[in-house]
Amino acid sequence: PCSLHVHTLYTHRHKDKHKDKELRHKEQKKDKEREKVKHSNSEHREHSDKKHRDKDKVKNFDGSGERHREKQDKDKRREEKVCFLKIRFFSGIVFFVLSSVLNYHLFHKHVVIHLVSGCRWEEERATDGSKWRFLEHKGPVLAPPYEPLPGHVRFFYDGKPMKLSAAAEEVATFFAKMLDHEYTTKDIFRKNFYKDWRKEMTSEEKSKITDLTKCNFTEMSEYFKAQSEARKQMSKEEKLKIREENERILQEYGFCVMDNHKERIGNFRIEPPGLFRGRGDHPKMGMLKRRIRPEDIIINCSKDSKHPKPPQGTRWKEVRHDNKVTWLVSWTENIQGSIKYIMLNPSSRIKGEKDWQKYETARRLKKCVDRLRAQYRDDWKSKEMRIRQRAVALYFIDKLALRAGNEKEEGETADTVGCCSLRVEHIKLYPKMDDQEYVVEFDFLGKDSIRYYNKMPVEKRVFKNLQLFLENKQPEDDLFDRLNTSILNKHLQELMDGLTAKVFRTYNASITLQQQLKELTSPEESIPAKILSYNRANRAVAILCNHQRAPPKTFEKSMQNLQTKIDEKQKQLSTARKQLKGAKTEHKASHGDGSKKMVEVKRKAVQRLEEQLMNLQMQATDREENKQIALGTSKLNYLDPRISVAWVKKWDVPIEKIYNKTQREKFAWAIDMAEEDYEF
DNA sequence: GATACGACTTGTATTTAATCGT
DNA sequence: ACGATTAAATACAAGTCGTATC
């Protein structure tokens, strides 16, 4: 079904190509000019430093249009509009109240500048690559300290109770808490856990505990289960108290001040210690994720801000003032040695702007995608192997929305691949399959070890190339041995400013949504039917991007529940219809006012029931079609929200039906910006 | 050009809160 | 008001991509 869908989704492209033929000519001319200008520019700044390049990049995005004179006017107008909208957007965010008089004055000064000169502070921020001018926050919330188990909860070794030291006990509880999880049955998980657990034991414990299978954690596990049960059974007052405490922490630590605005922080809690749960066949699953202390934490904030205080008797690893980055707090995690960050919520200015920028890049790709496609098709014939590989890979990325596929260190992570890291064993070639020719079968594990399976008929030239790439190779050899993401992205960068492999995913997702919405929405259908159409368009994208989910455990049951509801409605409807008929015949006989009213009442009842039945059926279809497909990821990360906003405005669908509260906050910029006629 | 690192986006799983039917 | 579902929020793992370093 996947390949079918993808195929139908992509048929429109051929149509478009004809339409765009003349346009393409123009585009090519423009691009040539652009390249000339770019070339001379690059000569000019041969010795210019990185800062200069950053400057240009930002300017391009902002649409100041220095390079394209013909576009200057249009861009200027857009820029003005954008600035205006930005003011609206950001003034929509709750202004915070500054306590100190000095800050109060500063604040007003900025607002005045802001209003008088449009988004001047924006430009300031953008030109030197800095992300903010002022940043103040309270630092992270540390994980609560370990609370030793009460005396009656025992750990047994080899059938005998054994008191563990605090350190060893804590790690044991991590395992106990996961006892019901499949993880604890996996060999690697157990091995890694045991190895790290031993490191926490006293020498006495080490000599005594020699075999994990002799360890009995059940009493601990039962205790935690009882605890969580008790939490559920708590009285209202107690629950309220906890909620209030959480709210207080949120108010204190959940917000920061960035450039005159109070912004919500995304994750202000430091990850607590526990056992690492990798996805898929992860070689490090079960390892101990150690507790993060203040001494491990780097704070990032303004020099002139009130620095967050470390807990009494401790100190931060470092306090730095780097406004070239957006994070507030960072620490190094001990499993992969990678850095983790505390950053702002998606509703923040800094994230919203970046998101917007992402879709603008995708829209620029839209303008030149035909040229690009023509180019990679041409490259299939290249004399050079590396160019052919590059072209076929790009074709896959474009057509199948595959990820770039960086190389990963072997043995450090689960064995997953993307386009550039595909291996011979991941594809099969079928010169003929059923009634199709030149079919490629993909079967590999992608991000998060989610399986990608698809059969796609390709053009003869691609097929021949693939045969060539496979020659004299072992199954575990790279399919594209002359290619990696760095080479590919460098090439893409030359084709279009800011273009990388992932832009294709954004572009294809958004353009598909727009096209599907156009195709599926019919003007006369009801609101619920329109929502079904929207979800179907969204689904088309999710299928394209391979956003699968395991069918919910209670799926069948909830489907049945819905069906019984539908049956009930149907019964109600048929009785209501009978009553209407009866009322009608009665009215025919009597022609009285009372009977006439009765007919109306019954008619209304039938109408209402019909509507309710329709809605239920719509819901059922939606749910059934959504069984194995997750819409969230594409909605949040790939679909230009302005397409949805425009659609909602065009058909008078309440926006709450498409975006929940959080999503509306994240997409506030788009909701403010897009009108009914927005075109991606 | 290989490699490591840092910053940031994308993605699924789990936990918590809201909603629904009784 | 209550328990069961369902949706939203959170947690954190796993990608992408640019840059520094050798």
From TrEMBL:
<dbReference type="Pfam" id="PF01028">
    <property type="entry name" value="Topoisom_I"/>
</dbReference>
<dbReference type="InterPro" id="IPR013500">
    <property type="entry name" value="TopoI_cat_euk"/>
</dbReference>
<dbReference type="InterPro" id="IPR013030">
    <property type="entry name" value="DNA_topo_DNA_db_N_dom2"/>
</dbReference>
<keyword id="KW-0472">Membrane</keyword>
<keyword id="KW-0799">Topoisomerase</keyword>
<dbReference type="InterPro" id="IPR018521">
    <property type="entry name" value="TopoIB_AS"/>
</dbReference>
<keyword id="KW-0090">Biological rhythms</keyword>
<comment type="similarity">
    <text>Belongs to the type IB topoisomerase family.</text>
</comment>
<dbReference type="InterPro" id="IPR048045">
    <property type="entry name" value="Topoisomer_I_DNA-bd"/>
</dbReference>
<dbReference type="InterPro" id="IPR051062">
    <property type="entry name" value="Topoisomerase_IB"/>
</dbReference>
<dbReference type="GO" id="GO:0003917">
    <property type="term" value="F:DNA topoisomerase type I (single strand cut, ATP-independent) activity"/>
</dbReference>
<dbReference type="Pfam" id="PF14370">
    <property type="entry name" value="Topo_C_assoc"/>
</dbReference>
<dbReference type="GO" id="GO:0005694">
    <property type="term" value="C:chromosome"/>
</dbReference>
<feature type="domain" description="DNA topoisomerase I eukaryotic-type">
    <location>
        <begin position="275"/>
        <end position="652"/>
    </location>
</feature>
<feature type="transmembrane region" description="Helical">
    <location>
        <begin position="87"/>
        <end position="107"/>
    </location>
</feature>
<feature type="compositionally biased region" description="Basic and acidic residues">
    <location>
        <begin position="19"/>
        <end position="75"/>
    </location>
</feature>
<dbReference type="GO" id="GO:0006265">
    <property type="term" value="P:DNA topological change"/>
</dbReference>
<dbReference type="InterPro" id="IPR014711">
    <property type="entry name" value="TopoI_cat_a-hlx-sub_euk"/>
</dbReference>
<feature type="active site" description="O-(3'-phospho-DNA)-tyrosine intermediate">
    <location>
        <position position="638"/>
    </location>
</feature>
<keyword id="KW-1133">Transmembrane helix</keyword>
<dbReference type="InterPro" id="IPR013034">
    <property type="entry name" value="DNA_topo_DNA_db_N_dom1"/>
</dbReference>
<dbReference type="GO" id="GO:0048511">
    <property type="term" value="P:rhythmic process"/>
</dbReference>
<keyword id="KW-0812">Transmembrane</keyword>
<dbReference type="GO" id="GO:0006260">
    <property type="term" value="P:DNA replication"/>
</dbReference>
<dbReference type="GO" id="GO:0007059">
    <property type="term" value="P:chromosome segregation"/>
</dbReference>
<feature type="compositionally biased region" description="Basic and acidic residues">
    <location>
        <begin position="583"/>
        <end position="597"/>
    </location>
</feature>
<dbReference type="GO" id="GO:0005730">
    <property type="term" value="C:nucleolus"/>
</dbReference>
<feature type="region of interest" description="Disordered">
    <location>
        <begin position="1"/>
        <end position="75"/>
    </location>
</feature>
<keyword id="KW-0238">DNA-binding</keyword>
<dbReference type="InterPro" id="IPR013499">
    <property type="entry name" value="TopoI_euk"/>
</dbReference>
<dbReference type="InterPro" id="IPR025834">
    <property type="entry name" value="TopoI_C_dom"/>
</dbReference>
<dbReference type="GO" id="GO:0003677">
    <property type="term" value="F:DNA binding"/>
</dbReference>
<keyword id="KW-0539">Nucleus</keyword>
<dbReference type="InterPro" id="IPR011010">
    <property type="entry name" value="DNA_brk_join_enz"/>
</dbReference>
<dbReference type="InterPro" id="IPR036202">
    <property type="entry name" value="TopoI_DNA-bd_euk_N_sf"/>
</dbReference>
<protein>
    <recommendedName>
        <fullName>DNA topoisomerase I</fullName>
        <ecNumber>5.6.2.1</ecNumber>
    </recommendedName>
</protein>
<dbReference type="InterPro" id="IPR008336">
    <property type="entry name" value="TopoI_DNA-bd_euk"/>
</dbReference>
<dbReference type="InterPro" id="IPR014727">
    <property type="entry name" value="TopoI_cat_a/b-sub_euk"/>
</dbReference>
<dbReference type="Pfam" id="PF02919">
    <property type="entry name" value="Topoisom_I_N"/>
</dbReference>
<keyword id="KW-0413">Isomerase</keyword>
<dbReference type="InterPro" id="IPR001631">
    <property type="entry name" value="TopoI"/>
</dbReference>
<feature type="region of interest" description="Disordered">
    <location>
        <begin position="576"/>
        <end position="597"/>
    </location>
</feature>
